[in-house]
Specification:
single chain, 150 residues, alpha+beta, five-stranded antiparallel sheet, 3 helices, elongated
């Protein structure tokens, strides 16, 4: 079993997670870029080594009624793996079925414009660059930033 310090070191190695100290010496780690209202990836990590990782969307783990997986007895590799999977399960997905356009600038940087439900989203890789209420607003933004539709 990993010590609290070892678990903390592994969790803090994920730059996308933000530490939040909570009551009774426990620590949560939030993923602010989450596509859902769920932001806690690590929940109530305690100095006794107990804690939970959000795993509602993950297969192969025993979860409580809130979708949390107890990590008390996890090895270093198991902890890294479940955190990676948890973050991935909360990461916004780019739909391959939604209307999408490729835009490029003179430096050959590429952005993708995707219609998602009633919004138009601009992505740089998997990262959301901006969200707009209409295609026109998104296209205007891209033009202002020096991009042209391919």
């Amino acid at each position: 079993m990993l010590t609290f310090e070892e678990k903390l070191s592994i969790i803090e190695s994920f730059p996308e997670l933000e530490r939040k100290n909570v009551s009774m010496g426990r620590i949560n780690f939030h993923y602010e870029a989450s596509a859902s209202d769920k932001k806690n990836v690590v929940y109530h990590l305690h100095s006794n080594g107990n804690g939970f990782v959000y795993g509602a969307e993950l297969n192969g783990y025993k979860k409580n009624d809130k979708g949390m997986v107890n990590i008390r007895d996890f090895s270093a590799d198991e902890l890294r793996t479940i955190i990676q999977k948890s973050i991935l399960s909360l990461t916004p997905k780019i739909s391959t079925k939604a209307p999408r356009e490729k835009w490029i600038n003179q430096d050959h940087q590429t952005l993708i414009l995707v219609q998602e439900e009633d919004m138009w989203s601009v992505y740089a890789g998997n990262n959301l660059d901006g969200a707009f209420n209409s295609y026109g607003e998104a296209a205007e933004y891209l033009h202002e930033e020096g991009f042209s539709r391919v």
